[in-house]
Design brief:
By secondary structure, the chain is of the alpha/beta class. The chain is built from 9 helices and 7 strands. Helices cover 50% and strands 13% of the residues.
């Protein structure tokens, strides 16, 4: 019997690549997304259920999980991939934007996990794979709220092991570096809106401009997003209790530097790198 995976945020970017990877490997795939009516590629694949799921809408989560169980009879792996990136000076960020960051990246992840857990608990089996980021281990300028949300995911996932490992449910964290999947572009579009909250002489403006320019340069690394999908498949199938799966040369290099430096040294390096 084929195993089944439920993926949030499967309508684009890494989520779609993960869905295609598991389908290629012979899995049943519940490819959930906010706007399934716009999906044309995954709907053509056998053993793929394209389902509406908005992580901020509990009813849609409940329905998507129920549809997946009705179609395939079981869910073996949950991938909490859906995410939202917010950057900008904390002082000028509107409260609704900050709340959106945590509603999607933290509370949305909680909601989907809680919806699947009863099924995993009854089976005494299951794997929960949560998307963090290298930004869940280190921080960059003008992205404090995004980092705060990913640090929360790190702590939640690590802490939940103690509750779920004894009933044979495994926890995994995926920690990608910078991959050109449209995620950073979406962050920058959001940042364009941030400028309207900032006066022309705002003390943060030059720093934000420098940060956005540096992000463009970082995206020039041209790392293959398929590597992330492959790491997710490894996390789902390696049978280990390994918690963290870092992926991307940039992530590995900068985290190695963080491990060798004290707080002041690392801050200085980052500020110089971002021309701050």
């Amino acid at each position: 019997m084929n195993k089944t995976i439920l993926i949030t945020g499967a309508g684009s970017g890494l989520g779609k690549l993960i869905a295609k990877k598991f389908h290629k490997e012979g899995w049943n795939v519940i490819a959930s997304m906010r706007s399934p009516e716009k999906e044309t590629e995954l709907t053509e694949l056998d053993n793929v259920l394209v389902s509406r799921l908005d992580v901020t809408d509990k009813d849609s989560i409940t329905k998507s999980v129920a549809e997946g169980l009705e179609r395939f009879g079981n869910i073996d792996v949950l991938v909490n991939n859906a995410g939202y990136g917010l950057q900008g000076p904390f002082e000028v960020l509107a409260e609704e934007l900050i709340r959106k960051e945590f509603e999607v990246n933290v509370f949305g992840l909680f909601n989907v996990t809680k919806a699947v857990l009863p099924h995993f608990r009854r089976n005494r089996a299951g794997i929960i794979i949560n998307f963090s980021s290298i930004g869940g281990l280190i921080t960059f300028p003008f992205t404090s709220m995004y980092h705060a949300s990913k640090y929360a995911v790190e702590a939640f996932t690590e802490g939940l092991q103690y509750e779920l490992n004894p009933i044979d449910i495994k926890l995994k964290l995926i920690e990608p570096g910078s991959f050109n999947t449209g995620f950073v572009s979406a962050m920058e579009r959001e940042s364009d809106d941030i400028y309207k909250y900032m006066p022309e002489n705002c003390v943060y403006r030059d720093g934000l401009n420098a940060t956005m320019a540096r992000r463009h340069a970082m995206m020039g690394a041209q790392q293959d997003p398929q590597d992330v999908a492959d790491i997710v498949f490894l996390a789902a199938t390696d049978g280990s209790e390994r918690l963290r799966y870092m992926v991307g040369d940039d992530a590995e290099k900068i985290y190695a530097l963080r491990e060798r430096m004290n707080d002041v040294e690392f801050k200085k390096m980052i500020m110089e790198s971002f021309n701050l």
